[in-house]
Amino acid sequence: MPLRLTRRGFASLLATTPFLAPARAEESWAEIEARAKGQTVYFNAWAGSPQVNAYIAWAADEVNTRHGITLEHVKLTDTAEAVRRVRDEVKAGGEGSADLIWINGQNFHVMKEEQLLFGPFTEELPNFALVDIDGKPTTIVDFAEGTEGLESPWGIAQLTFFADGAKLDTPPMSMMELLDLARDEPGRITYPAPPDFHGTTFVKQALAETIEDRAMLPLSIDKAAFTEAAKPLFEFLDQLHPYLWREGKQFPQSQAQVTQMLADSELLVGLTFNPNEPANLVASSTLPATTIAWQNRGGTIGNTHFVAIPINAKSKAAAEVVANFLLSPEAQARKADLKIWGDPTVLDMGKLTPAQRGLFSRAREPGSVKEPARTIPEPHGSWVPLIEAAWLERYGA
Amino acid sequence: MNRLGAVPLALLWALPLLLSLALLVPTALDGAAWALALAHPQLWPALALSLATGGLSTLIALAISLLLLGGLPRSRVWHRLQGVAAAGLAIPHLAFAIGFAFLIMPSGLIARLLIGGDAPPQWVSVQDPWGVALTLALALKEVPFLLTAGFAVLSRGDAAVRIKAEAQAAASLGHAPGSAFLRIVLPPLLRELRWPLVIVFVYGATVVDMALVLGPTQPPTLAVVIWHALNNAEAGVNAMGLAMTLLLTAALALILAGVALILRLGRQAMHRLLTAGPSPLQTPRLLAALAGLVTVLTVSFALFILVLLSLAPRWPYPALLPPAVDLSAWASVPPATLWLSLLLSLAAAAVAVASAVLWFETHGARHDRWAIALALAALALPQLASAGGQYKLLLPLGLTGTLFGLFLAHLTPVAAYVLIVLAGPYRAFDRRYVAAARALAASKLSAWRRVKLPLLKAPLLTATAIGFAVSIAQFVPAQLIAAGRFSTLPMEAVTLASGGNRPLTAAFALALAVPPLLAFLAAALLGRPRWR
Question: Which residue segment(s) compose the domain that B309 sits in?
Answer without folding.
Answer: 3-526
